[in-house]
Amino acid sequence: MNVVSPEEVGFSTDRLGRISDMMQGYVDEGKLAGAVTMLAREGEIFHFEPVGLADIESNRPMEKDSIFRIYSMTKPITSVAVMMLYEEGHFSLDDPVGRFIPELGRMKVYDGMGERGMRLVDQEKPITIRHLLMHTAGLSYGNYQDSPVEELYRQVDIMEPDSSLLDMVKKLSGLPLLTQPGERWRYSRATDVLGYLVEVVSGQPFDQFLQERIIGPLGMVDTAFYVSEEKLDRLATVYGPKADGSIEALDNPFVNRFREPHKLFSGGGGLTSTAADYMRFSQMLSNEGELDGVRLLGPKTVQLMTSNHLPEELKPFAVGQSMASGTRGCGFGLGFSVVMDIAEHGILGSEGIYSWGGAASTIFWVDPVEDLVAILLAQMMPSSTYPLRRQFQVAVYQALIS
Known about the structure:
alpha+beta; Beta-lactamase; 2 domains; 8-stranded antiparallel beta sheet; two-stranded antiparallel sheet; 28% helix
């Protein structure tokens, strides 16, 4: 892979060293095992650096081709799959999803507590495909504490690895919506539902559709829903913080499910990938739908996806969410957060940046103004442990000199 001099694309080599210093500082202080950072401008990679270890116990170094659980960075890939089908004329964005997934056309809506428990009412309007892409469908994740509906999510094993996407939808359909569709932005299982929508509309298993229509054509050779046995020695270990400030390897189904084949292909958080692979996907978006002669989307579709679709009253959209770009000054498109007001945003960057991150401290963004793509991959949970992604964004833009 060719890496050009930073000066060739308007960056300072000396100032880019602050990215290395920051990442190495986290490693030296025992706060982070390791990470990979990657930057491209005008289609040219000018920074690609691993630091630290992929696994502390075995002293295995982090490499450029280390494989990461990208969790919610799967969502933009799923959203692209949906929009490819939209371009082919299979549906309108405002079509009721119940037309394709009948189970989701009959869901009740939580309307507060009464003497006999939760009050449930009918939907005032149907969930649409646009609602799912925007996280305004009324679904949730079960991670919050502000509604009894969240507890119902926690009681149901929605993403059981040996179940199917249809099983997942059936479980979701048995729960009430948290709010009326379109009433509130709520980070949710919506993108997992979109994965099933892709199955229904395309007639292909979701993993097969992604491989044949996106992953394969883009040459993303290390991106999959699990890591094959011959590549397991490249999979980075996930860590979490201990009370004494050190870190420890995590051992639970949420991190281990990627180590062997399974049947539930999560469109919201199921993929593993590398920095080089995700750069190819991100560069396709930056190029408005095309990479190396392979066109997945038309330019106008990418522009639609990366425009804000949230009305003013639904912003800020993600209280409690921690992303590289933060949430102030942001809206939300069809699969991405979108920076709308750089002053309100309060972090170095540009208006129009679109981005998303994953649960283990991963992040990517595309800056159309500067023709810049940035990727940070780490394996630290929760992602809010350190201001890693915000600091990475500042370190990138302070090195931009022309």
